[in-house]
Design a protein that fits this description.
- With 282 residues, the protein is an alpha/beta fold.
- The chain has helices spanning 16-22, 47-54, 68-81, 100-111, 124-139, 144-157, 168-172, 178-187, 210-224, 241-255, 267-273, and strands spanning 4-9, 25-27, 30-32, 38-40, 62-64, 87-92, 115-119, 160-163, 189-195, 201-208, 232-237, 259-264, 278-281.
- It starts with a strand and ends with a strand.
- Strand 6, helix 4 (100-111) and strand 7 (115-119) form a beta-alpha-beta unit.
- The radius of gyration is 19 Å and the shape is globular.
- It has a 6-stranded mixed β-sheet with strand order 10-9-8-13-11-12, sandwiched between helices.
- The chain folds into 2 domains: 4-29 and 65-156, Rossmann fold, CATH 3.40.50.10170; 160-281, Hypothetical Protein Tm841, Chain: A,domain 3 (2-Layer Sandwich), CATH 3.30.1180.
- The longest helix is centred in the middle third of the chain and has 16 residues, at 124-139.
């Protein structure tokens, strides 16, 4: 089997045990709290710690991508360890959501032409599942051209849907107005969002009540996918474990997927969507 090394950023939301098993290495983004303290996403602050700390401030934490130096060091070490004979792949959060992909691409061009940098056009466990598929494909010994072809096919079939419990973080982040939030709260409206083919996050529809929002996630997953017995389904949550477990139970019944991965939403992503986020992807 040909040697390879896969890097991703910290928004992929795969559990630590899977990362270790597959040898996938994280290049972390950072979160910065209003008191001036900064942490490497996932490495220096957990999802639970982040949600607890976020409640302490009126302002939202800020987020930032990894530095070019961080990418350069990681790529140089990987190329050296593989003795220029293996495949080095970086898979990043959608370029429509972060500058991480562009920074990684610049760093890779400075190190070696053999480094493949991929814009996932997704995030969270969408990114995580694609990382697992890339690991699987590379174990087959495929070349770069075939790898990129399979990645594009994955993107075409890929779906991601999520809902939020509160719009507070969306308001603070400037994504909706305070007036719209008040109306939504009064009417108990819960928005559903989805990932577009271009890799953006867009509002899809509204439903009344949290239970209906969760039910709608199940329906959307079922309506927009097929061949689930061959697919990995991902469920990510931000402080909503009980509802995530309920979602997992229902998706197992309805979709009968090859596997379901359940994880916590990374601090960087939770900054924007807030506590109570529930996400389904495949």
């Amino acid at each position: 089997m040909r040697k390879f090394k896969i890097f991703t950023d910290s928004t992929l939301d795969l559990p630590e045990e899977i990362l270790k098993e597959e040898g996938i290495e994280i290049i972390p983004l950072s979160v910065h709290f209003p008191d001036g303290k900064s942490y490497l996403d996932r490495l220096e602050i957990s999802a639970k710690e982040f949600l607890a700390r976020m409640k302490e401030y009126v302002e939202l934490p800020k987020t930032s991508q990894p530095s070019p130096h961080h990418f350069l060091e990681a790529f140089k070490n990987a190329v050296h360890n593989l003795e220029n004979a293996g495949e080095v792949v970086f898979l990043g959060l959608s370029s429509r959501l972060s500058g991480t992909f562009q920074t990684a691409k610049m760093a890779a061009e400075m190190v070696s032409k053999k480094i493949t940098v991929i814009d996932s056009k997704t995030g969270s466990l969408g990114l995580g599942i694609l990382a697992l598929k890339i690991a699987e494909w590379l174990k087959e010994g495929i070349n770069r051209e075939e790898l990129l072809h399979r990645v594009e096919k994955f993107k075409e079939e890929h779906r991601l849907f999520f809902t939020v419990e509160t719009m507070e973080n969306l308001v603070k982040g400037g994504r909706i107005s305070r007036m719209k939030e008040r109306v939504a709260n009064f009417l108990n409206i819960k928005p559903i969002f989805h990932r577009t083919p271009e890799g953006e996050i867009a509002h899809l529809e509204n439903v009344r009540g949290r239970k209906k929002a969760i039910q709608r996630l199940i329906e959307l997953a079922e309506q927009h996918g097929k061949d689930f017995e061959q697919k990995i389904v991902g469920i990510t949550h931000a402080g909503a474990l009980e509802e995530a477990l309920f979602l997992k139970e229902k998706l197992l019944e309805r979709l009968k997927p090859k596997k379901i991965i359940l994880s916590e939403l990374s601090p960087v992503l939770a900054t924007h969507s807030g506590e109570g986020t529930l996400l389904v992807t495949y």
